[in-house]
């Protein structure tokens, strides 16, 4: 019995090595080609339309090539941490442990421009409870 146990353990150890494939090619490093743009805005900078609030900023790094083949990622500074967008925030106005409305925050982009978009399920919440502050845009080819 010990003989079989020893053979099973030995086979298991050596069998793992036989499943290793060749090392793959080196991946693309985007750190050399990435553009990082930091900006801030205030609630007074928002364009309010009914239950929609928009902030637009010119970002020349978003070229047609980026729109067609690249990636644009946006983060919002929340306290001391960067929060990836898009996100939703459930809001409890009167602290009764229920959701009174939801604020959805996202973004879209086109050549040369980025728009931060906020929508609310409660019309009277805009612009008072909209987010503002510091944002970071990462543009990758």
Observed structural traits:
single chain, 141 residues, alpha+beta, five-stranded antiparallel sheet, four-stranded antiparallel sheet, 2 helices, 9 strands
What does this structure look like?
There is one protein chain. The longest helix has 17 residues. Strand 2 and strand 3 form a beta hairpin. The radius of gyration is 25 Å and the shape is globular. It has one domain. With 141 residues, it is of the alpha+beta class. 10% of the residues are buried. It is built from two helices and nine strands, in the order αβββαββββββ. A five-stranded antiparallel beta sheet has the order 2-3-8-7-6, with no helix packed on it. The protein starts with a helix and ends with a strand.
Name the beta content range: 35-45%
Taken together, the total number of domains comes to: 1
Q: Please identify the structural class as seen in this structure.
A: alpha+beta
Gap from first CA to last CA? 60 Å
Strand order, main sheet: write it out: 2-3-8-7-6
Unreliable stretches: none
- Overall residue-averaged pLDDT value: 85
Tell me which oligomeric state these chains represent.
single chain
Main sheet overview: 5 strands, antiparallel
Q: In percent, how helical is the residue content?
A: 10-25%
Order of helices and strands: HEEEHEEEEEE
Envelope shape: globular
Total number of helices: 2
**DSSP E strands, number:** 9
Q: What is the C-alpha radius of gyration, as a whole number of Å? A: 25 Å
